[in-house]
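Run log, item B.
One chain of 281 residues. Sequence copied directly from the ordering sheet:
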Amino acid sequence: MTTATPTFRPAVPPAGERLSRLLWALFGSLLIATSHGRAHQPDPVISPYVGERPPVLDGDLSDWAAADFITVTPQTGVFDAESDSTDDPADFSFAFSVSNDDRYLYFAFRITDDILVLDDHPDPSEKEGSPWKDDAIEIFIDGDHSHSPDARDEKGVEYRTGGEFAVVANGAVTSSFSGFPLTNGDSLVWSSAGSYRAPPAAAYQAPWDTTGGEFSIEVRINFAVMGADVGPGNLVGFTVSAHDDDDGGERDAALYWKGISPSCWKNESGWGDVLLSAKPK
């Protein structure tokens, strides 16, 4: 007697249950995609301006006349949620440009600010402070292009190839959150200059200047800060920010070119890139 081999067929769920499972699968895929997007966003890549001569660090941007500037406004930039924001570009906005030669990476900034406040940094020669509390710019360098989610890790790993370099409107500086503290003015590390008037400008007397307006800052950072092998042809991660204080004390707003808020200042995965150019012969 021959026994027929039974045929097993998977149970088919009702149509409503199949639709429910499909929707849950799609929802899970969206969550994964969103999670990955937050982990690392596509990098905007900047091609630096390369002129016949390197910029002179004096706060005068006339030698950047042929360079392209990127304008960052409340509508196009990223406000760090750790402070407030504004909708008015005349209140607070900035533009920046990037250049390089065979040794340095250069930055030029034009900052629009209706009220200048320097109450925390009245001394332009100060090299150790809290520039984010006053009207200032900051440059963040990811020299090893690691996209680290924590550039302020306890071991200071990311400091070895960059960190944070800040310049207050009056020229006061800090690089305390980098591997190169107290080094502004050292050609082997970094240098800066600004256009804002020295004392006894009104910002030092009030301690803020209600007339405000526009000021400029230039910064030069040695490739050696970013790693031993960094030079023309390399990608370097970076972002820049400007900070606004209208009434003394803590800052009112922090506006970034690129970043993931909050903590744009330490999450490298939200920054952009600069492709270092070869100097023309």
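Observations after the first pass:
- Residues 1-12, 21-40 have pLDDT under 50 and may be disordered.
- Helices lie at 15-39, 202-205.
Flagged for discussion on Thursday.
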